[in-house]
Amino acid sequence: MKPSIFITRKIPEIAVQMLREQCEVEMWDKEDIPVPVEILREKVKTVDGLYCMLSDSINKEMMEEAQNLKVISNLAVGYNNIDIQAASEKGIMVTNTPGVLNEATADLTFSLLMATARRIPEASDFVRNGEWKSWSPMLLTGQDVFGATIGIIGMGRIGEAVARRAKGFNMNILYHNRSRKEQAEKELGATYVSLEELLAKSDFVVLLAPFTEETKNLIAKKELEQMKETSILINVARGGMVNESDLYDALVQKKIWAAGLDVFEQEPVPLDHPLLTLPNVVVLPHIGSASIKTRITMSEVAASNMLQALNGQVPSDLVNTNILTR
Ligand code: GLV
Ligand code: GLV
After folding, report:
1. Is the pLDDT confidence value at 208 over 80?
2. Where would I find the D-isomer specific 2-hydroxyacid dehydrogenase NAD-binding domain in this sequence (predicted)?
3. Atom of ligand 2 nearest to the CA of 98
4. Are strands 258-261 and 93-95 parallel, antiparallel or unpaired?
5. Per-residue pLDDT for 179 more than 90?
6. pTM here?
7. What is the mean pLDDT of the chain?
8. What domain range is 235 assigned to?
C-alpha cells in the first residue's frame, strides 16, 4: 500500500507530481485560504506524512492523536509553528527547507531595508495621491544606505547572504550570533559585537535569527532605547522577536527613525493594528522567500524530504536529528 500524505495548501504542480508517484496524495487545494483546523486535525490522525506551511500550527494535541504519522515536512526554513519536542517524543521526523531560500530572502531583506531607508512606499503614494506639487530640496528625504553600519542579529546562511550585499554597499558590518562566525569575519569583514554594542552603533538593525524561547521579545523597550534616533529596524525573521507595542511607542516618540516589517506577531496583521497607522513603517505580508523560482524549489525540497522519510531514509533536512538515536 502506498503511504498517504496530506498537503495543507495548493503547492506547485511539479512537487505534487513527485509525491503522487509514490504516495496517495490529498491536498487542500485553495491557494489563499488555510485549511480549517478541524480538517487538519482529522487528516493528521490517519496520514503517514503531513506536508505543511508555516501558517499551520502543528501542536502536541494533534500529534498525540496521530496514529501513523512518520514525518512532518514544513515548507519553510523556520519551524516554530511545529512543537518539535512533541514530535520527537512521538518519533515523528520534522523537516524544513534551508539553503535554497538564502539568496531570495536576502534580496527581500535588502529591498525592504532600502525601501524603508528611502521611504519608497510613502513616496509612491505621494505621487498617486496627487500630493506632488513641486520639487523641493528636503522632500521625502531618507537615510543613506551606502557606507552605513548594518547590524545583523543571527548570522546564519541568510545573514551571510545579507552581509554579502551589504559589502557591495560599502557598509560597516556588525553581527551578533550565538557563536562566532570566523569565516564570515574573514570573507565579509564582519565584526562580532555584543547585542548592546550592535544596537548602539547600527544604522540598520536586521533580525535574521530563528524564533526560539531565547529570541522571543528580543527587541523590546530597553533594546529600542539603545538604538540610535536615526536608526531603522528590519524584521524578516518572526514577528514574536519584536515587542510590537514597544516598537510603536519607540516610533511615535522618535526613539528610532523607522521600521521595515515582513513579519508580525499575528499574521495576517490585523488591519486596525496601530503600527499600520505610522508612515515610517513599511509593511510586507511575509514574503521573504517569495520569488517564483525559489518557492518552486522549496516545494520540491519539501517533497523530497517527505519521500526520503517515507522510504525509510534519513531526510536531507531533518530538524529533530535527536530522534535518530532513540
Ligand atoms: C519563512 O519565513 C521561512 O521560514 O521559510
Ligand atoms: C537559514 O538557513 C539560516 O541558517 O539562516
Report:
1. yes
2. 110-288
3. 2
4. unpaired
5. yes
6. 0.95
7. 97
8. 102-283
Q: Is the CB of 54 under 6 A from ligand 2?
A: no
Same domain, 167 and 28: no
Ligand index nearest the alpha carbon of residue 96: 1
Indicate if ligand 2 lies below 6 Å from the C-beta of 165.
no
pLDDT band at residue 31 using 50, 70 and 90 as cut-offs: confident
Q: b/e per residue, 134-171, with b = 16+ CB within 10 A? A: eeeeeeeebbebeebbbbbbbbbbbbbbbbbbbeebeb
Same domain, 138 and 267: yes
Best residue among 54, 97, 295 to mutate for probing ligand 1, ranked by most atoms within 8 Å of CB:
54
Residue 3 Cβ inside 6 Å of ligand 2? The answer reads: no
* Atom 1 of ligand 1: nearest residue by CA position: 76
Residues 125, 94, single domain; the answer is no
50-107 per-position pLDDT tens digit: 999 999 999 999 999 999 999 999 999 999 999 999 999 999 999 999 999 999 999 9
Q: How many domains does the chain have?
A: 2
Query: How far does residue 106's CA lie from ligand 1's centre (Å)?
Result: 12
Contact 257, 143 (CB under 8 A): yes
